[in-house]
Amino acid sequence: MGNKMSPLFVLVYLFLVLNGEGIITNVEAKSNVHIIYLGERQYDEPKLIADLHHDMLAKVVGSNEMASDLMVYSYKHGFSGFAAKLTKSQAQKLAELPGVVRVIPNRLHKLQTTRSWDFLGLSSHSPNNILHSSNMGDGAIIGVFDTGLWPESRVFRDEGLGPVPPRWRGVCKSGEKFNASTHCNRKIIGARWYINGFLAEYGKPLNTSGDQEFLSPRDANGHGTHTASTAGGSFVGNVSYKGLGSGTVRGGAPRARLAIYKVCWDILGGQCSSADILKAFDDAIHDGVDVLSLSIGSSIPLFSDVDERDGIATGSFHAVARGITVVCGAANEGPSAYTVHNTAPWILTVAASTMDRAFPTSITLGNNKTLLGQAIFTGKEIGFTDLVYLESTEFDPNAAGMCEDLSLNNISVSGKVVLCFTSIARQIALVQASAVVKEAGGVGVIVAKKPNDAFSSCDADFPCIEVDYEIGTRILFYIRSTRSPLVKLSPSKTIVGKPVSPKVAYFSSRGPSSIAPAILKPDITAPGVNILAATSPLGQFMDGGYAMLSGTSMSTPHISGIVALLKVLHPHWSPAAIKSALITTAWQTGPSGLPIFAEGSSQNLANPFDFGGGIVNANGAADPGLVYDMGATDYIHYLCAMAYNNSAISRLTGQSTVCPSTKVSILDVNLPSITIPSLRNSSTITRTVTNVGALKTIYRAVIEPPIGIMVSVKPDVLVFNSTVKKISFKVTISTTHKVNTGYYFGSLTWTNGVHAVRSPLSVRTELLQSYADDN
């Protein structure tokens, strides 16, 4: 096949911004692993299901022995199916057998805190929050799909924890440099690894790419240790990153138990196979987890919700059907629209924000003016020294001063600080510029770039200071105004609280959903910028066993930890009820009371496509008042509205489904949000709320209509009592716009004087589409 990529091979990734650089790498391999998906399991006995899978494969390949050699996995707990090494003709024969929903090629996925919990109102020192009312998540079990864990990290100690919950049915598996009897405990109660699907695609032995790996749950990358410790790590005091951000690290649910499912491998930046992910879902459903945390995604264009090539959408459907909340990252492809991943309505999709912490670094110019940048610089102060900007004598005078292509042109920068500019949002420009300057004997670099609070460190004693274009231009004008420009660089400081205001992170993927724009995505936002948590000692950015990382990989386990707390308080709430509670109580303003902005080419007020319901308010979600609940019927309504095949829906849901002959409206899916991507004249939608608060209460509707949009609600008063716990209402939305518009935003809030149950409202007028339909 040479260098041509097999059409059967696709990637999925961990949502991590390392050095601000999304890890998006290609692996070339001949694909021969296929996933034979049979839908909902037809029997309750796992051995019987596995035997049926084996017999089905043997019938096609010719013998039981050959079937045993070719079988990769049997999926027998959460759903039915298997993965096997097949030729194209064998795959075709299996696809023609009765009961087979689909045969699909394996697919590889890619990989996507001392202050954040206080910022979210979950301080361990305050007795009046859900951290304490839930006993810090004791009894909840968080499953983490990632790169494994470093078991020696202090965040995984089990001091003070009681016995393993008796409902737990999982296992700890020993492997390379991982001893289940010593490395698992009452905190780490499960540890498995899945590599057969990946190795079949990779086509090479492990550890041949130059990256170190362990054939066990042990984490060589550090990503999995970071996410697991953020979700459910124990308390560890006096932690900092190179002296900054000092405090106590812990997870959102520090007394919850962790089950580790290593599905991603430290090969070419982090790779994960669909076959392995589906097997992990199958096991996790059997094991008894309460919440699953996946900082993993795919790539644009996305696969449909019923296409098993998106192993996450399929696996998560079966998990949610069994009451397990599945939390996934939105991806790191922002700030462009339509870049959000993991868009199925049964998934809780998480965007990333900054928080009220910053690391200001003073830049004092020779004219005694001091400007502020951001950095992680903990070395000695760089006293006044020469400051240079590399001017070009060629056609483009700024070409030599671009960070990503810094050209010294035999110019000595020894002992000097270099200013450069970049239009690249990711951090690769900073990394390249600092390497060039340091190698040439420079003592620091100032990088002028688009506003972005996600930054990374160079060596602790080498300052890489980031400023926006405005500050960068002021420094440049100073350089050009004097013969001997000088600069002094001071070590970074840590400040928290006012005046720092949270923002939606530049990299955080934005909605609308490219699959179903009427389904609001992302759902919720949590801190995901400069998050300090445990990591592997082998990690590139490790400092004393901890790392400060950014990405929706980091925001996702924040939500997973909070879901664990909610699950302890409300064990009978469905995943949809938990999602509703999070969305309808979220913050739209920062601690200062000012609106939240979204980073981008220019900073604008954040809207639902940036942050969903808003920044998570865990304490509010514990007592939301009302919830918009959903179950199998609602998800079937969605699948029918998407015009998916009846047979595919039936197999996915495990029940015979015939969609109505008249198309159902996707707008009536009982979401805690209202999104109308194509309003022409008017539209009436239905929602149902369930009272989870005081038995006797009255709620009244408060409407903030989008600009040019009229909104009415009937009834606009909801009366609940001991016999009336659910009430349906209709929302009529009409437009006064006579032209096509972009999206306008508003809200519908139900309030009883104690609770404010807010649903984001997003509406776009599309008259041109109406004209096209009529002609």
Helix content: 10-25%
Sheet having the most strands: 7 strands, parallel
Strand order in space, largest sheet: 10-13-9-16-18-19-30
Q: Any idea what the shape is?
A: globular
How widely separated are the two ends? 47 Å
Low-confidence runs: 1-11, 18-31, 770-775
Tell me what portion of residues adopts beta-strand conformation: 25-35%
The total of beta strands comes to 43
Radius of gyration: 27 Å
Structural class computed from helices and strand pairing: alpha/beta
Number of helices: 19
Provide the residue-averaged pLDDT: 87
Note the quaternary state here. single chain
Write a structural description.
The protein is α/β, with parallel strands linked by helices and 775 residues long. Helices cover 22% and strands 27% of the residues. Strand 14 and strand 15 form a beta hairpin. Helix 1 packs across helix 2. The chain is globular. The N terminus and C terminus are likely disordered.
Main traits of this protein?
single chain, 775 residues, alpha/beta, seven-stranded parallel beta sheet, seven-stranded mixed beta sheet, 19 helices, 43 strands, globular, disordered N terminus, disordered C terminus
Per-chain topology:
Elements: E1 12-14, E2 17-18, E3 21-22, E4 33-39, H1 46-61, H2 64-70, E5 71-75, E6 80-85, H3 88-95, E7 102-105, E8 108-111, H4 116-119, H5 130-133, E9 141-146, H6 180-183, E10 188-193, H7 196-202, H8 223-232, E11 236-241, E12 244-249, E13 257-262, E14 264-265, E15 271-273, H9 274-287, E16 291-294, E17 296-297, H10 311-321, E18 325-329, E19 348-353, E20 357-358, E21 360-365, E22 370-374, E23 382-389, E24 417-421, H11 428-439, E25 444-449, E26 464-468, H12 469-481, E27 486-489, E28 495-496, E29 503-504, E30 524-527, E31 531-534, E32 546-549, H13 552-569, H14 575-584, E33 597-598, E34 604-605, H15 608-611, H16 618-621, E35 626-627, H17 632-641, H18 646-653, E36 674-679, E37 682-691, E38 697-704, E39 709-714, E40 717-720, E41 726-735, E42 743-751, E43 756-765, H19 767-774
Parallel strand pairs: 1-8, 9-13, 9-16, 10-13, 16-18, 18-19, 19-30, 23-24, 24-25, 25-26, 29-33, 36-43
Antiparallel strand pairs: 1-17, 2-3, 4-6, 4-7, 5-6, 8-15, 8-17, 11-12, 14-15, 20-28, 21-22, 21-27, 23-27, 31-32, 33-34, 35-37, 37-41, 38-40, 38-42, 39-41, 42-43
Helix pairs in contact: 1-2, 8-13, 9-10
